[in-house]
Design goal:
By secondary structure, the chain is mostly helical. The chain is built from 7 helices and 3 strands. The protein has one domain. Helices cover 69% and strands 6% of the residues. Helix 3 packs antiparallel against helix 4. The longest helix is centred in the middle third of the chain and has 37 residues. The two termini are 33 Å apart.
Length: 193
């Protein structure tokens, strides 16, 4: 079951906003850039292709079987990651809204929860990165022995592509979390009753 995080929005007067405006703009810019980079990394398509290839088994070579087992574990971890993938990014971005009198921003708790979710998903990314590299190494060895060469090469190429995409996504998430943590104090913790 996926936990749904509540997005809380807090109003700021223009006087409250004035001293933090540049930091708010910077934070919004980081969020826009992160969403663009996030969307550009399409793991879902690769996960589907890898899953469809991993329904077969290579019974002739133990090393290849280990490679396919590793690729299946990669698929399972990718499924977990995609299930946990932060769905609130664009909703949080929408909360950066203004009119002529006041501006609304996400609460500090909302931003903190986003960072927590991303850091938790980074643990899965680390496992996927390691497993995809293991799969590539095992299947490369098997391919050099000529066992089911075309099939092994196909899985190896998919896992290799996943590995490099995960490395890129891990860096993107890390940079975003680092940058936003430095700005988080500008956000109010909660609305004043």
């Amino acid at each position: 079951m996926v936990k749904t995080n509540k997005i809380q929005s807090i109003s700021y007067t223009l006087d409250e906003l004035r001293p933090i405006r540049s930091s708010v703009d910077q934070c919004r810019s980081y969020l826009v850039k992160f969403i663009e980079q996030y969307k550009s990394i399409d793991l879902l398509n690769l996960e589907t292709r890898l899953l469809s290839r991993c329904v077969y088994k290579n019974w002739n070579a133990r090393r290849a079987e280990l490679g396919i087992q590793a690729s299946r574990r990669t698929v399972r971890l990718l499924e977990q990651f995609l299930l946990k993938r932060e769905q609130n990014l664009e909703q949080i971005l929408i909360e950066f809204k203004s009119d002529e009198i006041k501006m609304s921003l996400p609460s500090r708790g909302t931003i903190n929860q986003l960072l927590t979710n991303l850091e938790e998903s980074s643990l899965l990314l680390t496992k996927i990165k390691r497993l995809s590299k293991t799969t590539v190494d095992r299947l490369r060895l098997e391919c050099s022995r000529g066992n089911y060469v075309h099939y092994n090469i196909l899985i190896m190429s998919l896992c290799s592509r996943i590995h490099f995409l995960v490395v890129a996504l891990e860096k993107t998430q890390g940079d975003f979390c680092f940058n936003v943590k430095n700005l988080i104090k500008i956000f109010k913790k909660k609305s004043k009753e």
